[in-house]
Amino acid sequence: MKLSRYAPLEHPLVQQFQRAIDSLTAALAPASVRQYRAVARCFLIYLGEQHPAIDSLNQLRRDPHILDWFVDLRSQNLAPAVYIARLLLMRCMLEELAWSTQAPDLAHLIRREDIPRAPQRLPRALTPQQDQLIQQELLRRNDLPSNVLLLMRHTGMRIGECVDLEYDCLHNASPDRWAIHVPLGKLKTERMVPIDSFVCQIVHRLRFFRSFDPLPFDGRLLARPRNKQTLVKQLRSYLPDVVAAVGIPTRIVPHQLRHTYASEMVRAGVGLPALMKLLGHVNPEMTMRYVDVAGADLQREFHLARSQPRHLTPQPKAPSFSPRGGLDGVIDSLLFAQHAIEMFRRSLPNGAPKDRLDQLTNRLTKILAETRKLKPTG
To answer: Of 14, 93, 247, 277, which one is least surrounded by beta carbons within 10 A?
Structure first.
C-alpha cells in the first residue's frame, strides 16, 4: 500500500508512517485517509530533499528538521486553515509513532504553541449606506421585531441578551441619564449600557407590544412563543426580509448590528476600556476584533493629527487609558501594539505585506500568552 495515489515514494520512513496512518484512520472516512497520506508524503519529500541523511525516526530532531519544515510550509503561501491542518495531522502521526515505536521524544517535536489559532471570521460592521437603509426600513415598519433589531443596533446587545431583557430593564442614573440593564449573557457577565432618549422610546414601544400579547406575563420584556430559541429564530428570519426590501444583495445577520454599534462608538471617541464595558467583553483582544476602521476614518484621524499636532499643545490632554506598571503594563503595551498592527493591516490590499502583518499578529498573540504565564498565581 502506497502513501498516496501519486507515484511511489522512495524513503526509509515510508513504511513506518504508513503503519501510523493505518492505525489512526481505521475508522475514518476515505477523505481523511487521503489527507493523512498527503501530509506524510509532503513531509517525507521535504526530508529527502533537505535532510537526505535521515533514515530512522531516532534521528528526527525538532531543530532543524521540524522547524525547517515549518519554514518550508510557510514559503508555499498556504491558506491559514491548510497550514494549521497540516501541522495538526503531522502532530497526530508523530504521537502515534512515539507510542508504537516506544520513542517518546517524537511526541514533543511539534508543540501546542507551534500551531497558530484558526482565524475567526466574525461578521463585519455594516457600511454607512447599509446601516441607513436598514434603520429607515425598521423605523417604517415599527412592529415588534423591527423595534427589537433597532434596540440591538443602538445598544450593541447580542440577540440572546436582547430576548432575556427584563420588563423593568430601564434604570434612571440621574434626571437626564438612563441606562439599560443587560442580563447575564454569553460570557456570564451583566452590564449597564448608557442609552439616549431614542432607545428609551424603543423600550416603551416594546412594553406597549407586550401589553397586548396574550401570553402570560413572566417578567420579561419580550414574550416567548414556546422557548427562547423559538423567539431568536423568529428574529433572525425577520432581518433577511428587511434587507431584501431595501435592495441590499449581500447576506446580513443580526450580529452585524453589534459590530456596527462598536465601530460607531470608536468613531465617536470611545476608548478601548469603555468599549469593552459597553460590549460586555472581558478580553481586549475580542473587542479589537469588533472594531472596523475604514479608509475614511484613517484619513480623518490623520488630518486631525496634522492640524492639531501634540508637540504644539502646551498641556496635552491625558490619554483615556494609561498603561499600568510592571508586568501588567507590558501586557497592555503588547495589546495596543497588536491593535495598531491589526488596524493598519485592514487598510492594506490583499497581498504579501498584509499576510506578513497577519503572521506578526500571530507572533504577538504567542508572546502575550507566554507573558501572561509570568504573572504569579493567586
So the answer is: 247
State percent of the chain over pLDDT 90.
34
d(CA 105, CA 60): 9
d(CA 174, CA 264): 25
Q: How are beta strands 177-182 and 170-174 bridged, if at all?
A: antiparallel
Range of the domain at 41: 14-114
**Strand segments (E) across 291-361:** none
Which of these, 138, 99, 344, 360, lies nearest to 254 by C-alpha position?
138
CA 77 to CA 74: how far, in whole Å? 6
Domain boundary among 252, 287, 313: 252
H or E stretch covering 177: strand 177-182
Q: Do 166 and 183 meet the contact criterion of CB atoms below 8 Å apart?
A: yes
- Residues facing 164 on adjacent strands: none
Same domain, residue pair 142 and 220? yes
Counting runs of H as helices and runs of E as strands, what totals does the chain give?
15, 3
Region of poorest pLDDT, from 145-149, 239-243, 308-312: 308-312
Is there a domain that residue 207 lies in?
yes
pTM: 0.52
Distance (Å, whole) CA 15 – CA 1: 9
